[in-house]
Amino acid sequence: MHIMRQYACVYRNVGGYMFKALGAAFRTADLRRKLLFTLFIMAIYRFGTYVPAPFVSYGNIQTCMTQMGDDEVGFMTMINMFSGGGMLQLSIFALGIMPYITASIIIQLLRVVIPRFEELHKEGQSGTAKLTEYTRYLTIGLGVLQSSVVVSVANRSLFEGCSVDPIPNETWWKVLFAIMTMTAGTGLIMWLAEQITERGIGNGMSILIFTGIAASFPTMLWEVNNSKGIGYALGVFVLFLLIMAVVAFVEQSQRRIPVQYAKRVVGRRTYGGSATYLPLKINMANVIPVIFASSILMLPQMVAQFGDPSSSWVAFVNKWFASGPNAYVYFVLYGLLIVGFTFFYTSISFNTEEVADNMKRYGGFVPGYRPGTSTANYLRYVSNRLTTVGSIYLAIVALIPTVLFAKLGIMGSSFGGTSIMILIGVGLQTVKDIDAQLQQRHYEGFLK
Predict the structure, then answer these.
(1) Would 221 be classed as within a structural domain?
(2) 8 Å CB contact between 77 and 84
(3) Cα angle at 151 between 147 and 157, to 5 degrees?
(4) Which label site among 84, 393, 422, 447 has the fewest CB atoms less than 10 Å from its CB?
(5) Strand 269-271 and strand 264-266: pairing?
(6) Are residues 172 and 294 in the same domain?
(7) Shared-domain flag, residues 208 and 243
(8) First vs last C-alpha separation in the chain
């Protein structure tokens, strides 16, 4: 009882600090304005997911959704998750931020094969602005491509078997206008996200992803309650909390590499001579490998939607590349792709030679290792060990919800490991941003 009272006292103190910090945030005029602006943009984004594209019948869409099960639209769950449910509504925000995410990843990967992109990355703010410009152009191009596919297959493959057409009396000019509207919606989402980044709190794209996933979770939990009962719904909720705690713990974990800076005398001033550390996260790739793996495994299913359902290759794809209670090959491939992409993406995002050169340039060194090549080799050794643990962690977190809910017959994008990691990662980063701004104004933050 004494221990329980101690824990209760700790929780009350933590809760008191959080509510106190939240009150301080809204009492500060500048921070309150940023928070309210962010909430306003989030509300606009949610409103846009329910506004149907031109010539799309909202009533017919709802009829199709009631006639079709989760298995028929399962191959679109990843895109539907990032659009906040707008994909299966054929709304003006149907594509969500998926084109921007894909464009950002492509531009980042092209740094490996295009020297010009790597040079821009090293130029600092001006080079980053140029890469951002390229990302915007590529986003619009991908938006045109993806919206063309979605609108073209809406009546035939996306809602196949529905008694009514989502786009009644489809003609070429109706399709063209819907494509233009969805592409414009993608550009508007990109602009809204940039406004959050500049004038609000946190990273705009991450906030919009968080908004879409968080908004769909209560609805799907209610669907589980209706189909499986309150026991299953409570079990799903408890499992969600447990995975959330594990993800929050791992995402906050670091391996701190000690770094010593030598003293330098410039004129009459002495620089350096300080000791610090280089923080290396266990999961340096974040959720990107899970998105990569899901997207690659989704491609065969999307291609199969255009084939003859009675053909052998379509049956092969539906058997081995679709998630389900007995899709063991799918689960194994999913896990292996996550592990492989984790190593691949970490090697790109954390360049040990570049880090070692920067440390050497400013007079820093890791105790026991010579600056330059020796330091880079040591950082690579530590990074590989951390990535091994991080990749296994990502695979487990992504597979446990997917396998369990598939066995239970519960389908839904918000119950995947991807969505859970995004929710926790974005939530932690946003809290840190608010906490940093509170501490700048001499308030106690959330993370006391």
Answers:
(1) no
(2) no
(3) 120
(4) 447
(5) antiparallel
(6) no
(7) no
(8) 26
- Is the C-alpha dihedral spanning 209, 335, 304, 319 positive or negative? negative
Give the pTM: 0.74
Are 346 and 280 found together in one domain? yes
Per DSSP, helices labelled H in 200-287 are 204-228, 230-252
Locus of tokens 């946190």: 202
* Residue 285 domain boundaries: 229-428
What gap in Å lies between CA 134 and CA 100, rounded to an integer?
11
Contacts of 432 (CB under 8 A, 6+ apart): 447
CATH of the domain at 325: 1.10.3370.10
Among the listed residues 362, 355, 361, 357, the one whose alpha carbon sits nearest the alpha carbon of residue 372: 357
Cα separation of 399 and 404, whole Å?
8
Query: Amino acid identity, residue 68?
Result: M
Kindly report the length of the chain.
448
Interatomic CA distance for residues 259 and 276, integer angstroms:
5
Give me the residue label for tokens 């209706």: 226
3-state secondary structure of 433: helix
Cβ–Cβ contacts within 10 Å for residue 176, how many? 12
Whether 131 and 247 share a structural domain: no
Cα-flanking dihedrals φ and ψ of residue 386, to 5°?
Answer: -65, -40
Percent of the chain with pLDDT over 90: 4
Q: Are 91 and 99 in contact (CB under 8 A)?
A: no
269 forms bridges with which residues in the sheet? 266
Cross-strand bridge partners of residue 254? 281
For the chain, which ranges sit under pLDDT 70?
Answer: 1-24, 67-87, 155-161, 163, 263-273, 302, 305-307, 309, 322-327, 406-417, 441-448
The amino acid at residue 301 is Q
